[in-house]
Design goal:
There is one protein chain. Strands 1-4 form a two-stranded antiparallel sheet. A hairpin with a 2-residue loop joins strand 2 and strand 3. The longest helix is centred in the first third of the chain and has 15 residues. The protein is mainly alpha-helical. The chain is extended, with a radius of gyration of 17 Å. 52% of the residues lie in helices and 10% in strands. It has one domain. The protein contains 4 helices and 4 strands, in the order H-H-H-H-E-E-E-E. The relative contact order is 0.07.
Length: 80
């Protein structure tokens, strides 16, 4: 949800200031399906990434939800 809000805030900022905003999206489901999450976190720990950041990343990964807005209507919320 924070990423969506941040994206909207950035777009609104540039629109208010007269700039055009362009975006692109890429389906990444196959890439994320292949991530070995335990290995990723092990590597991040070895690289001395802050445990607070690691806990935040794990929380976001474990608790992510999504809804799709199309033509002003929201879908039901679904999870990974």
């Amino acid at each position: 949800m924070v990423c969506s809000w941040t994206t909207k805030a950035v777009i609104d900022y540039f629109n208010r200031n007269g700039s055009a905003v362009f975006g692109a999206a890429m389906k990444m489901s196959k890439a994320f399906d292949m991530v070995e999450w335990a290995e990723l976190f092990t590597i991040l720990i070895k690289k001395n990434v802050s445990f607070i950041l690691l806990r935040l990343m794990l929380y976001v990964y474990e608790n992510q939800n999504c809804a799709v807005m199309w033509a002003g209507a929201n879908s039901t919320i679904f999870s990974k």
